[in-house]
Amino acid sequence: MKTHEIPFYPSNIWPFILILLLFFTTATLPINAHAEAKAEENPQLVHRAVKDYINLENPNVIKDVSDPFELVNRRMYMFNAVLDKLVYLPVLRTYQMVLPDVVEGCISNFFNNISEIYTFANAALQLKKEKATTTFGRFLMNSTVGILGLFDVATIYGIPREHEDLGQTLGYYGVQPGPYLMLPILGPSNLRDALGGGAESLLFSVVDPFNFGEDTTTSVIYSAFKIVDSRNQVFFRYYMTGSPFEYEMVRMLYDRSRGVEIDN
Amino acid sequence: MQLITIILCLFALLSPFGAKATATSTDPPPYDYPFVNPYESTVLGTPSLYKSDVPAKPREKLFEITVFNDRKIPRVFWYHDKFQFSLAWQKKSAPLIFNIAGTGSGYDSSTMKNMQKILFNAGFHVVSLSSPTYPNFIVTASKTMVPGYIQQDAEDLYRVMQMAWEHIQEKMKKKVQVSEFNLTGYSLGAAQAAFIARIDDAEKKFNFRKVLMINPPLNLFNSVSILDSLLDENIPGGIDQFNSFFNSVFEQFADYYKENKISLTDPDCLYEMYKNSPVKETDLAALIGMSFRLSSGNMIFTSDVMKKRGYIVPVAKKLSPFTSLTNYGIVTFHTTFTDYFNEYFYPFFKATDPALTPQKLKDQMSLKSIKSYLVSQDKIGLVTNNDDIILEPGAIDFFSSVFKERAVIYPNGGHCGNMEHTQNVAHMIDFFKN
User: Which of A165, B211, B292, B344 could bond B227 through an S-S bridge, CB–CB 3.0 to 4.6 Å?
Assistant: First the structure.
């Protein structure tokens, strides 16, 4: 395996993420915990003390998500923001400048069409017949009439895209979300969804539907486009709200929105 | 990530100071803005059927400048290391409009972007500036770092406007040719615009030809008190029951989502959602209050960290970029702007002026304090709505008596809800062109 593959190939992103997690955990966690403990010794010098506003029985909505790895997660949040600023967004801007909007749309359609396979499989796993059927229909239609998925003709014909993933399937069968995780590069997640996503990527590389095989160049190009496109499809930018409490908002909304998705 | 993006966007749209993007036009006379309930107007903005068609993407550049060289940026605000603003520019000589955001909003909020697009397409250069109550402004560009005192905030804005203009000239190498300067702002930004115009009349750096105030508060303190109470008074059982309120609103959204697909490419998604499953008026009011509370909370927390006044964060507490702020978030959510005024803002200014009373300070936060200036200035115009929720009784009378024919008062539109209505846009462009 060539080293430059690591950050680009989806199935190989996971070891990289684990190493990063380990690095951030071991390198910085104990020192900071000590500093925090020290500062807590002076709580009296404050007009509105935290203890007067925290209700342990009815925690505020921004506090009711399990986040035992918050210190690491916050580091990862910053890491992602810096990575965005220095690498991801400049690349994305060039991508947007070079390609006409129509082409960008086609690329998004292409990758969305491939993700229909996951949606189909997960809808089937959850025995959601209707969702599985429409997704299968969409995939057939877009892969043929839509020229390998470049055009989303199914949506034009009034068959909207569904989304299911392994995290949702696990949730559907009662697996709890587990601790909140801020994944490097990939963003907000939790243990359940991260395992689901990891398993899906692993499966992709084992099944190798495009027959990339030993052809690393093609697989790197594929992955590079996939990564840039996935960022292009996500409107969120780190620190876009300007709020000091953005981390809390994202955590709460991620948790809530996954809950809604699983219920569907 | 898809749904969370949708929800984040909906959150952004819910801002009392936010409406949304583009679409088709209709032909106007009698004023046909569709919502008569001001809370609906404020939340839902202008449906695309009532908007003008705005074609081109603005030619935009983002800039970052250091306003105070000696300012130490706390590590927890590492991402606010420089003052940010944007420029949309024309290739030929054109008038420039400085646009100031409303309470708690950044230069790139959805309302600011929509105004930028509208004004750019009408042939203006547009410089978009964050509100002095926006964290990035407090950290990098506010002299006292205690926002809300309009005269001082106006001075801060006037300083960054000059620096921004210098920076643009330097970076754009004379590519941006300006024929004249104009000024506008909405909500709190509108009140600040009036104060800035007054400063400029003395300093003459820009010699604004026209100044348009859109939906200003008459008295900032009174307006924020109204917004404060929207949250406290419309949640069944009061603020302590916020969780159950939030959960019930979220469940309504989830139920809707189950039945319908929400697409953000549809500029009317929020409107469609509302049409199909309307929210109670008290819930709408509470949502406006929530959005305002989040903005004012951001402001209060940011100011406290910058000033180290031990209001919410203990003086001795060292915040790193990785410190959990969740508990402080909860405290700020329980802190109203009125609390901020009484416990933080007033004591701060009292320290420099022992004769200052709370009433005197409140009076200085009002447009009434510059009434004679406003009466005498033909270049200043005002746009507001008869049902603007942030206005106290008597405010409309004050505006019509002071601005006379320079005031355009629409019958409905809530707070900034109708800013993108065809007629509002036509009037705004007409105002700056004539």
Answer: B292
Query: Is A2 inside a domain boundary?
Result: no
Query: Which of B85, B140, B331 to mutate to probe the A interface, most A CBs <10 Å?
Result: B331
Alpha helix locations (H) across B28-109?
A: 38-44
Q: pLDDT of chain B along its 434 residues, tens only?
A: 445 555 555 555 454 443 333 333 334 457 889 898 898 888 888 888 888 777 777 899 999 999 999 999 999 999 999 999 999 999 999 999 999 999 999 999 989 999 999 999 999 999 999 999 999 999 999 999 999 999 999 999 999 999 999 999 999 988 999 999 999 999 999 999 999 999 999 999 999 999 999 999 999 999 999 999 998 899 888 888 888 888 888 888 888 877 776 665 566 777 887 877 777 888 889 889 988 999 999 999 999 999 999 999 999 899 999 999 999 999 999 999 999 999 999 999 999 999 999 999 999 999 999 999 999 999 999 999 999 999 999 999 999 999 999 999 999 999 999 999 999 999 999 999 98
B339-358 residues touching A, CB cutoff 8 A:
343-344
d(CA A110, CA B299): 43
Amino acid at B221: F
* Range list of H helices, B260-387: 269-276, 281-307, 326-333, 337-340, 346-352, 358-364, 371-376
Q: Considering the domain boundaries, does residue A163 fall inside one?
A: yes
The answer to whether the Cα torsion of B134, B138, B142, B148 is positive or negative is positive
Nearest residue, CB atoms, B106 vs list A81, A242, A247: A242
Q: Where are the beta strands (DSSP E) in B176-327?
A: 178-186, 210-214
Task: Tell me if A22 is assigned to some domain.
Answer: yes
- State pTM to two decimals: 0.87
Rounded CA gap, B83 and B135, in Å?
A: 10
Among all residues of chain B, which has the CA nearest to that of A71?
B322
How distant is the Cα of A161 from the closest Cα of chain B, in angstroms? 9
Sign, Cα dihedral of A123, A127, A128, A132: positive
Point out which residues pair with A180 in neighbouring strands. A190
Q: How many CA atoms lie within 13 A of A25 on its CB side?
A: 13
Q: What is the dihedral of CA B10, B12, B15, B20, to 10 degrees?
A: -80
Task: Give yes or no for A100 touching B (CB within 8 A).
Answer: no
- Concatenating the DSSP letter of every residue in chain A gives --GGGTTT-GGGHHHHHHHHHHHHHHHHHHHHHHHHHHHTT-TTS-SS-GGGT--SSS--TTT-S--TTHHHHHHHHHHHHHHIIIIIHHHHHHHHHHS-HHHHHHHHHHHHHHHHHHHHHHHHHTT-HHHHHHHHHHHHHHHHTTTTTTS-HHHHTT-------HHHHHHHTT----SEEEETTTEEEEHHHHHHHHHHHHHHHHH-TT--TT-HHHHHHHHHHHHHHHHHH----TTTT--TTHHHHHHHHHHHHHHHHHH-
Residue of chain B with shortest Cα separation from A251: B4
A1 inside domain: no
What is the distance between the alpha carbons of residues A22 and A4, in angstroms, rounded to a whole number?
A: 21
Q: Is B55 on the interface with A (CB under 8 A)?
A: no
Number of folded domains that form chain A = 1
**A234: closest chain B residue by CA:** B5
Whether B272 has its CB under 8 Å from any CB of chain A: the answer is no
B84, A240 contact by CB (below 8 A): no
Domain ranges, residue A216: 11-38+46-263
**Residue B429 vs residues A45, B97, B140, B422: alpha-carbon distances, Å:** 52, 11, 32, 11
Bridge partners (DSSP) listed for residue B219: B366
